[in-house]
Backbone:
C-alpha cells in the first residue's frame, strides 16, 4: 500500500465538482476536516496486506437473470411524466446541454 | 399493546373489524404522535379502504390473510403508488411514485394495512433520525433521547404502540439499532430473501427490508409474509423461503451459541452485562454457549464507511432534476448547472458528506487504496463468519454500544455517529440475517438490545434463539412508553 497524502481542501473542491455539488467555503472547510477523520479511521483497513484476497462486491454470487422476451405492461407514460419537473411533447424537458446553441 | 398475531386472529374470526382497528390506530397517531414525530404522513383514506376490503372478505367467509386488519407503519423509502415517498429528503419532498414496492403489495395480499409513512434519516443515512429534512423523531421511551436510525420512525411507531408492526430497511444496522434503542424487536433478513423492488436505493449490495414488532413471534409472522422470490429484483433469491413462524417456539436445546467478544467489548458496561445475562439464559435453556473471538469484525466499520458511501454516490446520481423530484433552475443555464443547483438545494449535510466520501473513494488514484481494499476486507469478514459458523450455529452480541443518547449529542460529529453501527455492520457486509431483541435496561433505565446473528438463510433458527432470549428478558425497561 502506498502512502497517501492527507485529503486536501483542493481534493474536496474537486470531488464536489465531480458529484455536482456546490459547496460554500464554510462547507469545504467542514467537510475537509470531517472526511479526514473518516479516512484516518479507515487507515487501519488501508494498511492491511490483503493482496491474497479477492474483492467482494456483493454478499451473494451474482448471476445473469433472464426472462422470456414477451411483451408485458410497463409503467404508464403519463403517470411517469406527471412526476417530472418539466415536460414537453411527452418528453422530459431540460435546459440546453453544454455547448449546444440555445 | 395487542400483538399482531392476536389482532389478526380477532379480525379473522370477526371478533372485531379491521375498520375499527384502523380507525383506532389513526386516532392514536393523531393524538399522540405530536410528541414523537414517528410519521411523516398517514395513509388514512387508503388504510380505511383496505380495512373495509378486509372486513368484506371476513363477511363473505373468506380468509383475508395472516395479517388481517393489522396496521403496519412503512418507512418512507418504500414506494407507495400515488402517495408521498420522501426518503426524509427535500429532493423528494413532493414525489408520488408510480408503483408500489413489492413488500407493500405483499402486506396488502396478507390483509395488512399500510397506516402511514415513517420518518427516517435522509436516504437512510444516519443512526439517530436527526438527519431527516422534516425534523427529528423522538424516542417514545424518553423524548429527550434519539430513537436510533435510520428507521427511527418505524421503531418509534411500534414502541409508542401506534402499530404492532412496521417495516424498515437495514443497510448497516438501520433496523436493529433503532429497535434496540426503542425497546422493540427488529430483524434484518438474509440479503436477497426479501425483494428490494420499490425500496429507494442507498447501498444496493447491503440494503435489506425487514420487520419491526413487539414480539419475536410477530416479527416471524411478518417476515414470512415478506420473504420470497421477486422477478422484479434481480438479486432476489430464487429458492423458496423456509417458514419461520411454525418453529419459533422450538427452543434452543443443543444449539451452539458463540458469545462474540468482538460484538461486546467496547460496549458500555450495562450493555455488556445484559448480553452476558442473555448468554446465561440461553445456556440455562439448553444451548451450548462459549465465548468466541472474531477479530476481523473490527475492520467492518471502516470498510462499510467506504463501500456504502461509494455505492450511495452512484445510486444518488439519479437525483438530477430531470425525471422526478426537485428541480432548481439557477436561470437559463445549461443542464449541468441545473443538476448542481438541484442537488445542492435538495440534499442535506450528511447525504452530501457521504456522496463526497464515496465519490472520493471511487475517484482516480484512490480507488485501489480505499474502495477495492474495503471490498477485500468484506471478503475477510465473510471468511471470518464462515470460520465462526464452523463451530457455532449462531453468534450473540450487543446490537448497539450504548442505550439511546441525547438528541443533538452526536449530530456534529459524524465519526461518533458512525460508531453506533459497529456491532451491526458485519451482518450487512456478509449478507447474513440478524435480529435485535429487547433485553432489560441500562443504568439509565433505557432499553438494551441483544443481537443474535445467523448464517445466510437461517432465519428460522435465528427466530428460535431470539424467542428464547425474549422469554428470559428482565422485566422493566421498554415495557411502556413515557
Residues:
Amino acid at each position: 500500500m502506498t502512502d497517501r497524502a492527507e485529503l486536501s481542501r483542493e481534493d474536496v473542491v474537486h470531488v464536489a465538482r465531480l458529484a455536482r455539488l456546490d459547496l460554500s467555503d464554510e462547507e469545504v472547510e467542514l467537510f475537509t476536516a470531517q472526511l479526514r477523520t473518516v479516512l484516518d479511521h479507515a487507515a487501519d483497513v488501508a494498511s492491511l496486506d490483503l493482496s491474497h484476497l479477492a474483492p467482494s462486491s456483493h454478499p451473494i454470487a451474482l448471476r445473469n437473470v433472464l426472462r422470456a422476451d414477451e411483451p408485458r405492461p410497463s409503467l404508464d407514460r403519463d403517470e411517469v411524466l406527471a412526476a417530472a419537473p418539466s415536460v414537453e411533447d411527452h418528453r422530459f424537458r431540460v435546459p440546453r446541454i453544454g455547448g449546444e446553441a440555445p | 399493546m395487542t400483538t399482531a398475531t392476536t389482532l389478526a386472529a380477532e379480525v379473522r374470526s370477526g371478533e372485531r373489524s379491521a375498520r375499527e382497528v384502523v380507525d383506532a390506530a389513526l386516532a392514536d397517531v393523531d393524538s399522540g404522535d405530536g410528541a414523537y414525530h414517528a410519521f411523516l404522513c398517514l395513509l388514512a383514506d387508503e388504510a380505511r379502504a383496505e380495512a373495509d376490503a378486509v372486513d368484506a372478505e371476513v363477511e363473505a367467509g373468506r380468509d383475508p390473510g395472516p395479517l388481517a386488519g393489522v396496521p403496519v407503519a412503512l418507512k418512507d423509502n418504500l414506494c407507495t403508488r400515488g402517495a408521498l415517498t420522501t426518503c426524509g429528503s427535500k429532493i423528494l419532498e413532493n414525489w408520488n411514485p408510480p408503483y408500489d414496492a413489492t413488500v407493500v403489495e405483499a402486506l396488502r395480499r396478507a390483509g395488512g394495512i399500510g397506516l402511514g409513512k415513517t420518518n427516517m434519516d435522509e436516504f437512510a443515512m444516519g443512526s439517530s433520525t436527526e438527519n431527516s429534512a422534516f425534523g427529528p423523531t423522538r424516542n417514545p421511551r424518553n423524548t429527550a433521547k434519539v430513537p436510533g436510525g435510520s428507521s427511527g420512525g418505524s421503531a418509534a411507531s411500534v414502541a409508542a404502540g401506534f402499530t404492532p408492526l412496521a417495516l424498515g430497511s437495514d443497510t448497516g444496522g438501520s433496523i436493529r439499532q433503532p429497535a434496540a434503542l426503542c425497546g422493540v424487536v427488529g430483524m434484518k433478513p438474509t440479503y436477497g430473501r426479501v425483494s428490494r423492488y420499490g425500496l429507494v436505493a442507498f447501498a444496493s449490495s447491503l440494503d435489506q427490508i425487514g420487520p419491526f414488532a413487539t414480539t419475536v413471534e410477530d416479527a416471524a409472522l411478518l417476515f414470512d409474509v415478506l420473504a420470497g422470490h421477486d422477478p422484479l429484483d434481480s438479486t432476489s433469491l430464487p429458492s423458496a423461503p423456509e417458514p419461520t413462524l411454525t418453529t419459533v417456539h422450538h427452543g434452543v436445546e443443543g444449539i451452539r451459541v458463540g458469545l462474540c467478544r468482538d460484538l461486546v467489548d467496547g460496549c458500555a458496561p450495562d450493555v455488556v452485562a445484559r448480553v452476558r445475562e442473555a448468554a446465561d439464559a440461553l445456556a440455562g435453556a439448553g444451548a451450548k454457549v462459549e465465548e468466541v473471538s472474531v477479530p476481523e469484525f473490527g475492520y467492518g466499520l471502516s470498510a462499510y464507511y467506504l463501500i456504502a458511501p461509494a455505492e450511495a454516490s452512484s445510486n444518488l446520481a439519479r437525483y438530477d432534476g430531470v425525471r422526478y423530484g426537485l428541480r432548481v433552475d439557477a436561470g437559463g443555464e445549461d443542464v449541468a448547472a441545473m443538476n448542481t443547483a438541484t442537488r445542492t438545494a435538495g440534499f442535506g449535510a450528511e447525504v452530501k458528506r457521504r456522496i463526497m466520501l464515496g465519490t472520493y473513494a471511487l475517484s482516480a488514484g484512490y480507488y485501489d487504496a480505499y474502495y477495492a481494499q474495503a471490498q477485500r476486507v468484506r471478503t475477510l469478514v465473510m471468511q471470518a463468519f464462515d470460520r465462526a459458523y464452523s463451530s457455532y450455529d449462531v453468534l450473540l452480541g450487543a446490537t448497539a454500544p450504548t442505550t439511546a443518547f441525547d438528541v443533538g449529542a452526536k449530530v456534529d460529529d459524524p465519526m461518533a455517529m458512525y460508531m453506533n453501527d459497529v456491532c451491526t455492520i458485519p451482518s450487512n457486509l456478509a449478507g447474513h440475517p440478524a435480529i435485535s431483541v429487547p433485553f432489560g435496561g441500562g443504568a439509565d433505565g433505557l432499553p438494551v438490545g441483544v443481537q443474535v446473528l445467523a448464517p445466510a438463510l437461517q432465519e428460522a433458527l435465528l427466530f428460535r434463539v431470539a424467542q428464547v432470549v425474549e422469554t428470559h428478558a428482565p422485566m422493566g425497561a421498554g415495557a411502556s412508553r413515557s
Remarks:
- The CA atoms of residues 255 and 287 of chain B lie 5 Å apart.
- The mean pLDDT of chain B is 96.
- Chain B touches chain A through 73 residues (CB under 8 Å).
- The first helix of chain B runs from residue 4 to 12.
